[in-house]
């Protein structure tokens, strides 16, 4: 009996220890998020023998989240902490009104540490804080004074990348300091120790606050004393060559080639790099153009616009009248066209893409001299095509041209079933009077 009682008491203690903290019942609702009131140790402190926890203290009890912290970076509190320089997930613990952080490998001597708490801390009533905090201190190293500035750009869209991951690697020790860009993709990263840096702007797709091999990035090397990283145009660095995903008919004399990777925008494609053969006899078809799809669309749009303008001028009585188009006039807000160039859609609320580099594309348009033969198959070969990383190769694809749809047999002879229009009866002869 004594053993059974001891087991019962231990079970009750474990149940109390595992119980979740819930907001107290009753009382007026608290709409305010938790406020950060103190950090330990003090920022910019020099602590050669430091061996404790970095703590962020709030004015009320905070939520530990629904996902536990297990050192994998998937816990709700682990997702809010960036500790540098370290490549491992830090040890993050919940202490009612405090968040305690320390490196998984322990504090190393003579280093500058940067601990950032991201916005997102919530209280027991799910009020979310929109403010974060950064604490910087050293374990014996000189106090830092370097701040790196720049912008991270998604090269696929040509637009700044909000909340992009920024990594500054201190050479030659390869100490990795990490932070996030702001909502406009700008970098204001520091203070960091003096030295040579390799700065990388990364599109953190999985939001694990760490660079992955398949994520798009761009890098620049900054010598000691240099702080301007400029524009970091992030793209996927793929060492495998391009493949053709598919070839589809665009119109009677052109086809769109869908590629597995983005093309090198510095490569100038020649007509001779595309070879089109009619199958099965492999007779050559003369190619007249091979261009990236955005450039091909732009050129065709200009030709069509010039043709339409000429037609309008020939129909107008006074072709010298000034242009009254609203496009480009002061005070006019340009709008995006709908699908297929239809009626205008919503107004552009985002910033225009940057133009310091040409846009990326994974589509080519090949044009031939004579129309495609219905029902035929063509082999399309591209020679020496490079991806954006610079890897070149020869690739082949097949274009299948659809046959014209035959008329529906149920509609044949429909005219024979139609009723003939009624005919007017012949006029009656006049009758003589008796």
How would you describe this protein?
It contains three helices and 25 strands. The chain has 434 residues and is mostly beta strands. The chain has three domains: 32-141, Immunoglobulin-like (Sandwich); 144-236, Carboxypeptidase-like, regulatory domain (Immunoglobulin-like); 238-299 and 357-404, Immunoglobulin-like (Sandwich), CATH 2.60.40.1220. The strands form seven sheets. It has a four-stranded antiparallel β-sheet with strand order 1-2-5-4, with no helix packed on it. Strands 8, 9, 12 and 15 form a four-stranded mixed β-sheet that branches. The longest helix has 23 residues, at 293-315.
Let me know the average pLDDT.
83
Number of strands: 25
Low-confidence stretches: 1-9, 11-19, 317-349
From the structure provided, what is the oligomeric state, counting identical versus distinct chains?
Answer: single chain
CATH fold call of the largest domain:
Immunoglobulin-like
Structural domains: how many: 3
Distance between the termini: 139 Å
């Amino acid at each position: 009996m004594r053993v059974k009682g001891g087991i019962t008491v231990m079970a009750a203690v474990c149940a109390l220890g595992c119980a979740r903290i819930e907001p107290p019942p009753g009382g007026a609702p608290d709409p305010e998020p938790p406020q950060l009131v103190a950090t330990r140790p003090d920022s910019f402190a020099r602590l050669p023998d430091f061996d404790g926890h970095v703590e962020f203290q709030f004015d009320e009890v905070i939520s530990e989240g629904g996902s536990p912290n297990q050192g994998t970076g998937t816990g709700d509190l682990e997702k809010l902490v960036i500790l540098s320089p370290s490549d491992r997930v830090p040890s993050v613990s919940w202490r009612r009104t405090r968040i305690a952080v320390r490196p998984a490998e322990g504090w190393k001597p003579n280093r500058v540490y940067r601990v950032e708490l991201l916005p997102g801390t919530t209280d027991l009533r799910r009020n979310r804080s929109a403010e974060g905090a950064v604490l910087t201190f050293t374990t014996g190293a000189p106090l830092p004074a370097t701040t790196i500035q720049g912008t991270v750009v998604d090269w696929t869209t040509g637009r700044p990348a909000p909340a992009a991951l920024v990594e500054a690697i201190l050479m030659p020790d390869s100490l990795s300091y990490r932070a996030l860009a702001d909502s406009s993709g700008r970098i204001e990263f520091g203070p960091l120790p003096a030295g040579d840096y390799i700065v990388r702007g990364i599109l953190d797709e999985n939001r694990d606050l760490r660079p992955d091999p398949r994520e798009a990035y761009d890098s620049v090397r900054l010598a000691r004393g240099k702080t301007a990283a400029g524009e970091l145009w992030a793209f996927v660095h793929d060492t495998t060559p391009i493949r053709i995903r598919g070839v589809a008919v665009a119109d009677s004399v052109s086809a769109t080639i869908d590629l597995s990777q983005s093309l090198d925008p510095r490569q100038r494609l020649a007509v001779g790099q595309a070879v089109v053969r009619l199958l099965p006899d492999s007779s050559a078809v003369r190619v007249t153009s091979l261009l990236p799809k955005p450039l091909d669309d732009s050129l065709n749009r200009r030709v069509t616009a010039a043709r339409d303008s000429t037609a309008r001028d020939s129909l107008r009585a006074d072709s010298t009248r000034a242009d009254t188009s609203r496009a480009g006039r002061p005070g006019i807000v340009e709008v995006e066209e709908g699908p297929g160039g239809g009626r205008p859609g919503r107004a552009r609320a985002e910033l225009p893409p940057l133009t310091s580099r040409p846009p990326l594309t994974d589509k080519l348009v090949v044009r031939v001299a004579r129309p495609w033969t219905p029902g035929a198959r063509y082999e399309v070969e591209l020679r020496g095509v490079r991806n954006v990383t610079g890897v070149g190769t020869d690739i082949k694809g097949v274009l299948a041209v659809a046959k014209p749809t035959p008329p529906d047999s149920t509609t044949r002879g429909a005219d024979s079933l139609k009723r003939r229009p009624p005919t007017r009866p012949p006029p009656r002869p006049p009758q003589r009077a008796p």
